[in-house]
Amino acid sequence: MRDVYLIGAGQTAFGAFPQRSYRDLFAKAYQHARKRVDGDIETKDIDEAVVGSLGVGGRQLGLSGPAVTEHVGLQNIPCTRVENACAAGGFAVRQAVQAIRSGMADVVLAGGFEVMSDLSSEMTKYWLGVSGETEWERLTGTTFSGVYAQMASAYLDTYDATVEDLSRVAVKNHKNGAKNPKAHLDFECSLEDAVGAPEVANPLNLYHCCPTSDGAAVALLASEDVVGEYTDDRLRVAGVGAASDHVGLAERDSYVGLAATETAAQTAYERSGVGPDDLDFAEIHDCFAIAELLAYEDLDFCERGEAAKLLREGITEPDGDLPVNTSGGLKSKGHPIGATGTGQMVEVFDQFTGQAGDRQLDSPRYGLTHNVGGSGGATVVHVFENEGVKR
Amino acid sequence: MSVTEDTRLAAIEAVGTYIPRYRLSADVVTEAWGQFHGAGISETAVPAADEDTLTMGYEAATRVLDASDIDPTTIDGLFVGTTTPPTEEEAMGPRLASMLGLGEETKTRQFTGSTRAGVEALLAGSQRAKRRTLVIATDAPRGAPDDEQEHAGGAGAAAAVLGPSGAGQLPEHAEYVEVYPGTRFRSAGSTETTGLGITEYDRSAFIETVTKATAALDSDPTDADAVALQSPNGKLPYRTAGELGVETETIQQGTVVHAIGDTGTAGPLLGLASALTAGANRVLLLGYGSGGNATALTVVDEGIEVASTPIDEMETVGLSYGEYLRLRGEITAGEPAGGGAYVSVPSWKRTIPQRHRLVAGRCPDCGVLSFPPTGACPGCGALVDYEPAELPGTGTVEAVTAIGQGGAPPEFVEQQAKSGPYVSAVVALDGTEGSETVSIPAQVVSVDPEEVAIGDRVTATVRRLYTQEDVTRYGFKMQPTDR
């Protein structure tokens, strides 16, 4: 199987841009990604595109994939839109890796885009809930905040963790996001702010929920056969894992972990030969604060019930043993559904190529990304290795 | 006019009641309006945001069936009386029959258009001499915010099972009709019952019809231990004492309006349940309908099972006037634009056995329960045709949240606005064998949200889930088992 390398990644800022179109956002992300490829890359070099989007603000657009690639001059190439709710972008990357490994393509664009802020707040809530289990779960009056709140209730009931621990996720990720020029909510918050915010769905308050954002992000991937034509950096996709689970929470065996994440992570670790102890950083899907705690355990960063300790002891801070969400995560950097997974690629690229500015870690070698659809119905995990410079 | 001694009537086996837990006191209304027009009433019962006459009727019927351990499939008549059905057209019978698990051959009738409809339904049910009939009287009358119908308006339901082996004989009944237009009416398209408020005229209509109907009975009203009388307010029933020749204490025995308000068609039957509990053996049941007419029935109790009574109900929750206006939807904005999760009515219909009666499926291969019974078996993963297994409706909370303002999807924004934070949980429903459970998402109602915790035992009821395209979807919700 051919190895696949990340040769460039770029994005728009994430934020509220109600007046921008999804094509315009995608074009900006595409230009940014191309610019960041060392040796530059021509439009004609890209063999295929896979793009993730939930539905551009609830407008059930068909063919929004070709609509963005044709818009930027990527003409006549195969383009597929992937829909896996909030994991659409991560799964677009996985599809790109598959296309290259299979030999069907040498250079593939994995993108994602979403415009959410031009909707009324009610329309936004209507639309967000559609990735849950709509016939039973939603009809108890929940959107995702409610379902993650149920998981949080079970977690706080099962383990020695508190609402304050949930708030620590917000404090950490906002601190990181404040240093990210692309972040949507680029400000710091105190633990006091994050504990005392208005309740959304008990025990989750406003600071335990990520924003809905607009934005686009693009990753460019190349086969081992052609990577040298574009860059001397060797940022290898070391392993990929993905899994699905029941869309509704009540159907699952556990409410204090996402089985799909566990499976995806095990697969990615096995295929890459990289374990959680080897990782130098991770970008994980913190749509709600509880999701970051669950992910620590599902990704095997710690034992079951120990996630709060990692936060309390600063292990996942930028200067800790395993920095998590140096980009600010979904909480601070933002969450433009389809673009979130490819947005994680931008942080990986920044950290590996020393372009992370104030967020820069000290020469990381292994990084992990974790992207979840809905409340855990689909998960994809990528492990990356910076192999260094090859000429 | 006739007096009937009809020995072929079915008798009352059991009665039960249901009153919503919210109360609006006369003091609170007085504080808001400077006066209170519900004469003789201290509190009125107010339905929760997800309750209506259909769900209240279901609750009362469930209590009767459960308390007397009556198999619903032995009932083949369902007679409902209400002046305030959830929809002006579309019968309540089919939904109620489905929720209660009655058979496909059930004769369903709906009596409406008059507060007498509850007693009418009871009488009609009793005339099915050799059959078992479930009679439900359920009502929640409203008026204009500042009038006596609104101030007096309560909410509640009563249910009775009648059959050939009942212990509550109905030896006689009589009716009287005399035209009295304008005492109480609701124009087409209106949700507010009103009247011309001509005190003496209204009083004459009431007293004349109920007295004449009573006079047409064989027995003397003074033989009755209690009179359970239509109660538009808390004074009018007592005004009849003189004409009927009974003591006010006898009327008091069968009157519950002071504590729950005017419960329309349900009033006389709620009074009957109350009188039976207090030990009355002979009850004069009087239904009055504006228009006007009255029905008189004598009930002779030789051991009617009383499942519940309106007064010593569940714990009640007092409302402020602001809370009342919210709960009634007077000051809420209605469903916002943007639509909800769309579940088409045909696809909803497919799930009705689960929504109404918790019909799970048992895997014929591995025996594991599945709810809803669709898709691959959660036990063995095989795509199987499940064997229906009706769950007992009890369970344990496994995960729980209270959805606050801003956390509700659009189709639940109105519920949130009316009732404040509501509880959404994952509940492990008890199975039918051993300690097996099957988990489902469900709201938990009839409880303060902060009181619901993981591990709590809960029991199923049926409430309104939401309304889409003007079609209300009813389905199970859970409430604390000690309710």
Describe the protein in words.
The complex is a heterodimer of chains A (391) and B (483). Chain A is an alpha/beta fold. Chain A has one domain: 3-Layer(aba) Sandwich (Peroxisomal Thiolase, Chain A, domain 1). In chain A, 34% of the residues lie in helices and 19% in strands. Chain A contains twelve helices and eleven strands. Chain A has helices spanning 22-35, 64-71, 88-102, 121-129, 144-158, 163-177, 191-196, 259-272, 289-298, 307-312, 329-332, 337-352, and strands at 4-11, 48-52, 79-82, 107-114, 199-201, 204-205, 215-223, 233-244, 281-283, 366-373, 378-389. A five-stranded mixed β-sheet of chain A has the order 1-7-4-2-3, sandwiched between helices. In chain A, a hairpin with a 4-residue loop joins β10 and β11. Chain B is α+β, with helices and mostly antiparallel strands. Chain B is 25% helix and 29% strand. Chain B is built from 15 helices and 22 strands. Residues 1-6 of chain B have low confidence and may be disordered. The interface between A and B is large, with 41 and 46 residues.
